[in-house]
Amino acid sequence: MIIDRDHRDAIVYGAGHTEPMRNADEQREALFAALDEIGTDVALVSINQPGVLGLPEDDGIAIARDANDELLALAGSSGGRITGLATLAWQRPGAAVEELERVVALGMRGAMVLSNMCGDPVDAPLFEPILEAASTLRAPLLLHPTLPLTAGHLNQYKGLLAAVGYLFDTTTAAARLLLSGVFDRLPDLAVVLGHSGSLLPALAGRLDEEWRRGGLELPPGADGPPSALLRRLYSDTAGGSVAAVEACIAVLGVDKVMFGSDYPFWSARHASNVFSEMSLSPEEREKVSSTTALHLFGVSAPT
Questions:
Q1: Would you state the pLDDT for residue 32?
Q2: Alpha-carbon distance 58 to 168, whole Å?
Q3: pLDDT tens, residue by residue, 13-31
Q4: Which residue of 107, 137, 155, 290 is most buried, as measured by CB atoms within 10 A?
Q5: Is 249 within 8 Å of 287 (Cβ atoms)?
Q6: What is the C-alpha to C-alpha distance for residues 15 and 203, in angstroms, rounded to an integer?
Q7: Rounded to two decimals, what is the model's pTM?
């Protein structure tokens, strides 16, 4: 639902949660200004939460296609600075597969997946065809929060949903994917877990201890410990602090973490400042700032 908030459009997508909307020209100008401010040569850009989830199936399919076409047009006019990540109508898996195939053929390099699909987990059998397509096409999936399942409780305190609840949801989604065995079934599936591994770096030791005492079951064929499974994920530097990003690197490995800003929710300048303050060797800094993402998404920097 679209509402007027402070004389600007905003979208409401559950439990009273809203996000402001800008018109297309404003968004484009602000995006390129942010890239210029921190010296970003190439940006992977997506249409963010809530995507087309919650819409009737036919509407979701049509709007996802329109949104992807608009993003493809932006990328095509950017001189190589923008590469798109697709929005998919996960509520109709067959159509989502067709759309992913279409946009990858047109130059998109991956897709967004949200932490739950209107309550359904991403590892549900219903969504396996989309994961299979992403693996076959070598199209990485960016796992980002959406309205968490605990929104009703978190909204009792202003800001708690965004500050804490989103990461509960992405952490649960990523853990379910790892324990489902999907990365063994689909070895070419790449998942980028947003926000510096969410809460998984802090929980790695707890996962291992639960496994050692027999309280956590790993997927067939996995030897353990669970913390080793975390290295199947990629992540970013949008953790909010140097400590959060360094914890993520310690668990996932420096070759699995890429620069990210969480723009426009957070400022690109803040993300750049966190990255500049990290203790990295020149080789490690090059991996995090560019080479890992360029290789994973199959893009090249513009000359």
A1: 93
A2: 30
A3: 665 566 666 677 888 899 9
A4: 137
A5: no
A6: 28
A7: 0.92
